[in-house]
């Protein structure tokens, strides 16, 4: 798969999809991309020097070297971190090091639009080792020979420059349309929910269970896979459990889930205690690579079985928020729900009871909506 070409084709087809009569009204553009999707490019031409490393790729070969320089339990101490990908490339490549430049997926796509190479944002740069608290790369990283390929970093939603003239002319966008730094897909999805006060949280119930909580305090613990992204003067603390919708999909069809859920009484607690996982191993809120899935005993009634599973996932979610509080994060006050699980009204009621918090479906959960809010921020800054 030629990922680079497919992303480039997609970005221009998206520009083409904007209705012609809207194009002169577009004031700014921003992009969210998958966190830790890494591209090493030529610092002069912007052309890729290597195939891209995708977000979920692991580079275990680089992990010992990264662990030897980074603080204990730092976010980069994971095989899939951007820094591990950079080190893996650096060790394998001999020739193009002098002119090389590291960009994230969103950075590279935005470069196609604004033409200024080497600009990133502090959300995307977190997993390469950037410290958003002091707004710089740490000394332990700058001391490494490969630090020369790191991009400059600004806040997400910062105006970089105007849309390139050839693109403006080709598509009919206005002359003063600005292009702003982007963010990661999960941050953009959080921004879309408009959870703007400390204590507001978003639980994404997709194939896994991911939680993000807006906090006044930064929390980091690689053992649990917990780390914090900066959001202006606050911190977005996040963690992900391996439980979630993927387990439900293995046991029930969508039709069964819908039909059985309607028969559940969400005000009654289920006596069944499960730990629904697809495979052995959990990271958050329990750091145990040997934790086995627990989905038995199975009652005769499918309604009771589903109730037990939904309630068990809700208990894991409650434990996750409780762990973040114990670590020092702001206590969760309200939870918005995104992902496929947000459609299940009975599950929302179960979770509300188990969490002891107001739980509702987020009005907007599309990451693209969050990126548009960042673009709006950038447009307002450039006016001021």
Characterize the main sheet. 6 strands, mixed
Our measurement of the CA-to-CA distance between the termini, rounded to an integer number of angstroms, reads: 43 Å
Task: Give the helices and strands as they follow along the chain.
Answer: HEEEHHEHEHEEHEEHEEEEHHHEHEH
Name the average pLDDT.
Answer: 94
Helix content: 25-40%
Uncertain segments: none
Backbone structural class: alpha/beta
Can you count the beta strands? 15
Radius of gyration over all CA atoms, rounded: 22 Å
Question: Strand sequence of the main sheet, in spatial order?
Answer: 12-13-11-10-14-15
Count helical runs. 12
Tell me, what's the shape?
Answer: globular
Range of strand content: 15-25%
Description:
Helix 10 crosses helix 11. The protein has 12 helices and 15 strands. It is α/β, with parallel strands linked by helices and 384 residues long. The strands form 5 sheets. Strands 12-13-11-10-14-15 form a 6-stranded mixed β-sheet, sandwiched between helices. It has a 3-stranded mixed β-sheet with strand order 1-8-7, with helices on both faces. Strands 2-9 form a two-stranded parallel sheet. Strand 14, helix 11 and strand 15 form a beta-alpha-beta unit. The model has no long low-confidence stretch (mean pLDDT 94). Helices cover 34% and strands 16% of the residues. It is globular.
What is shown here, in short?
The protein has 384 residues and is an alpha/beta fold. It has helices spanning 3-17, 63-69, 82-92, 105-114, 139-142, 165-171, 185-192, 245-251, 254-261, 302-326, 345-355, 367-383, and strands spanning 28-29, 32-33, 38-42, 100-104, 119-121, 152-154, 159-162, 178-180, 183-184, 200-205, 209-215, 227-231, 234-241, 334-338, 359-361.
């Amino acid at each position: 798969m030629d990922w680079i070409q497919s992303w480039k084709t997609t970005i221009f087809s998206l520009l083409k999809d904007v209705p012609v009569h809207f194009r002169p009204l577009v004031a700014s553009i921003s992009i969210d991309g998958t966190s830790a999707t890494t591209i090493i490019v030529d610092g002069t031409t912007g052309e890729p020097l290597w195939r891209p490393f995708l977000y979920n790729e692991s580079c275990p070969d680089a992990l010992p070297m990264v662990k030897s320089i980074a603080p204990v339990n730092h976010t980069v101490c994971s095989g899939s971190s951007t820094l591990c990908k950079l080190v893996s490339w650096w060790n394998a490549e001999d020739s193009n090091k002098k002119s090389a430049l590291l960009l994230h997926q969103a950075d590279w796509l935005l470069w196609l639009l604004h033409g200024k190479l080497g600009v990133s944002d502090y959300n995307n740069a977190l997993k390469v080792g950037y410290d958003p608290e002091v707004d710089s790369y740490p000394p332990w990283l700058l001391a490494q020979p490969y630090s020369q390929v790191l991009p400059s970093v600004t806040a997400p939603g910062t105006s970089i420059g105007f849309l390139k003239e050839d693109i403006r002319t080709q598509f009919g966008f206005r002359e003063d349309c600005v292009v702003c730094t982007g963010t990661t897909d999960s941050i953009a999805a959080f921004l879309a929910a408009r959870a703007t006060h400390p204590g507001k949280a978003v639980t994404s119930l997709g194939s896994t269970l991911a939680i993000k909580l807006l906090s006044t305090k930064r929390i980091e613990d690689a053992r649990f896979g917990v780390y914090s992204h900066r959001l202006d003067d606050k911190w977005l603390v996040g963690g992900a459990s391996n439980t979630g919708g993927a387990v439900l999909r293995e046991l029930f069809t969508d039709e069964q889930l819908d039909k059985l859920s309607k028969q559940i009484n969400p005000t009654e607690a289920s006596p069944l205690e499960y730990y629904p996982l697809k495979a052995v191993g959990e990271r958050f809120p329990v750091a145990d690579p040997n934790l086995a899935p627990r989905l038995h005993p199975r009652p005769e009634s499918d309604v009771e079985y589903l109730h037990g599973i939904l309630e068990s996932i809700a208990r894991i979610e409650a434990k996750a928020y409780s762990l973040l509080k114990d670590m020092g994060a702001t206590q969760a006050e309200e939870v918005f729900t995104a992902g496929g699980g947000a459609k299940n009204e009975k599950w929302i009621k179960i979770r509300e009871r188990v969490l002891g918090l107001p739980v509702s479906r987020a009005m907007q959960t599309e990451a693209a909506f969050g990126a548009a809010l960042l673009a709006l921020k950038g447009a307002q800054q450039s006016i001021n």
